[in-house]
Design goal:
heterodimer, A: mainly alpha, Ammonium transporter fold, 15 helices, B: Alpha-Beta Plaits, 6 strands, elongated
Chain lengths: 436, 113
């Protein structure tokens, strides 16, 4: 295949890649503000640590194992482009849009990074930093790369995948409802079960220590998400505009319905609710970003905002400590968006979905796409939960994933990083040694 | 003889209370930050559905030494200026003071006020 460079599309994809990368430090603030002051640095370091580990793995074997030549529908060949050696632009994932191979690698790297970082919210305040870095490297390789390959790399949830073999249609996941959010959400649940509850969970106060950080994080996430969703078009065109606009309006709707749910149930519309509603809406519209029209986007956002607001209480009912609601927001939001595509997918009004997918129930397509979406979601939930649980159990049994009770109660920042984020009242600090 | 009038009030009423006391002839006072709760038991906050009770809320403690005969006036002025009519307005109480001395001059009693 000949490659013809399109500078406009390439410029947009370079920009979008930087936007998506900003989401991970944004997430660090979103999560960091939500934990207690004694563990904010560790929480933020889990996001930064994910950038370090996954960024390197991605260029060594990650991109290749996701988008290299298909091995049994399960994973790409990690040796095809190992170290990006010998890649040519005609092999680019985005070759049809005239975007060079390395730009495609860059864009996809940022997705892998944030997916792992999202998981960290489920295991806040209690995870050994070293164990987290090792987990990130293993998880991206044996969970993220396969799932991304299934959906986007021509694997078993793609155009020639299992739903097509079953006589249904091709799954729609435009920007990562299954690959990123359902995947990270269910993995968060598995790890939260492996690590167990924080000391005092459900009894001692664990209120967010810095809500302005949470708002700042939500703002950075929303900003970066325009690159995430509109960038997933791989081109600067009308469909990217559709994805961009849906990323705005579904999020607006979700923020308002989260606030409304809180107002009716708890009496007040909170800033934490607004920030959470923003993220819930962004998650839900991600798989549907290009595939639904304006009304579909409003409906998906509105439903997701309210559902996620209710879902964050489940951890208290069922007794698992998903500390920052990775399940309640990312799993529930991801499932909501992925499944509602089966109702709202449409081929009108500057939308797009892959060939072999169909309109949703409300747009004359019948129930086929809905069934396809449910199957895709279930496959990812089952695979990610089992494999994550096994990885977690092995790490827990060998190196140990959790810090000691004393370190947890005294503050993981000091125990794991030798730092504290804020000056303690009444503390006196003297300088005792300088390493020069 | 002298009395100690102590008020624990809403922090945002301090400026008004201070001016009202000055206007009533009070020439000195001690103000400190305090925290506590009364019959209203603080307030509740809800974060993603998890409810927390903040039962020690910030207050300001204001202490004024007065001559016996001024006690009723000063107490009334303090209450009037501090009052918003909502729960959490605080308390005022009066206790007898056995002796007061001005450190600079060594004067005692009402002369030291």
């Amino acid at each position: 295949m000949d490659f013809a460079l399109d500078t406009g599309n390439t410029a947009w994809m370079l920009t979008a890649s930087a936007l998506v990368l900003l989401m991970t430090p944004g997430l660090a603030f979103f999560y960091g503000g939500m934990v207690r002051g004694k563990s904010v640095l560790n929480m933020m370091m889990m996001s930064f640590g994910a950038m370090g580990v996954v960024g390197l793995i991605w260029v060594l074997w990650g991109y290749s194992a996701t988008f290299g030549s298909d091995i049994g529908g399960f994973i790409g060949n990690p040796l095809d482009y190992f170290g990006l050696d010998g890649m040519t632009d005609d092999q680019s994932l985005m070759a049809a849009a005239g975007v060079p191979a390395l730009v495609a690698v860059a864009f996809q790297a940022t997705f892998a990074i944030i997916t792992i970082a999202l998981i960290s919210g489920a295991i806040a305040d209690r995870t050994k930093f070293s164990a987290w870095l090792i987990f990130a490297g293993i998880w991206v390789t044996i969970v993220y790369m396969p799932v991304a390959h299934w959906v986007w790399g021509g694997g078993l949830l793609g155009a020639e995948g299992i739903t097509v073999d079953m006589g249904l249609s091709v799954p729609i996941d435009f920007a990562g409802g299954t690959v990123v959010h359902i995947n990270a959400g269910i993995a968060g649940l598995a790890l939260a079960l492996i690590l167990g509850k924080r000391k005092g969970f459900g009894k001692e106060p664990m209120r967010p220590h810095n809500l302005p950080f949470v708002m700042l994080g939500a703002a950075l996430l929303w900003f970066g998400w325009f690159g995430f969703n509109a960038g997933s078009e791989f081109a600067a065109d009308g469909v990217a505009g559709r994805a961009w606009l849906n990323t705005l309006i579904a999020t607006c709707a979700a923020m308002l319905t989260w606030l409304l749910t809180e107002r009716l149930r708890d009496g007040k519309a909170t800033s934490l609710g607004a920030a959470s509603g923003v993220v819930g809406g962004l998650v839900a519209i991600t798989p549907a970003a290009a595939a639904v029209d304006t009304f579909g986007a409003i409906a998906i956002g509105a439903i997701a905002g309210s559902l996620c607001a209710l879902a964050v209480g489940l951890k208290y009912r069922f007794g698992y400590d998903d500390s920052l609601d990775v399940v309640g927001v990312h799993l529930v939001g991801g499932l909501t968006g992925t499944i509602l595509i089966g109702l709202f997918a449409t081929d009108k009004n500057s939308t797009w979905y892959p060939e072999g997918a169909m309109n949703g129930l409300f747009y004359g397509g019948g129930l086929t796409q809905l069934a396809t979406q449910v199957i895709a979601a279930v496959v990812v939930v089952v695979f990610s939960f089992i494999v994550t649980y096994v990885i977690g159990a092995i790490l827990q049994a060998t190196i140990g994933m959790r810090v000691s009770d004393g370190d947890e109660v005294g503050g993981i920042d000091l125990a794991q990083h030798g730092e504290t984020a804020y000056e303690a009242l009444g503390a006196r600090v003297t300088m005792t040694e300088v390493k020069a | 003889m002298t009395k100690l009038v102590t008020g624990v009030i809403q922090p945002h009423r301090l400026d008004d209370v201070k001016s009202a006391l000055e206007a009533a002839g009070v020439r000195g006072m001690t103000v400190s930050e305090a925290s506590g709760y009364g019959r209203q038991r603080g307030h509740t906050e809800v974060y993603r559905g998890a409810e927390y009770t903040v039962d020690l809320v910030p207050k300001v403690r204001i202490e004024v030494l007065v001559a016996d005969e001024d006690t009723a006036t000063v107490t009334a002025v303090l209450i009037k200026a501090a009052q918003t009519g909502k729960i959490g307005d605080g308390k005022v109480w009066v206790v007898p003071v056995e002796d007061v001395a001005r450190v600079r001059t060594g004067e005692h009693g009402v002369d030291a006020l």
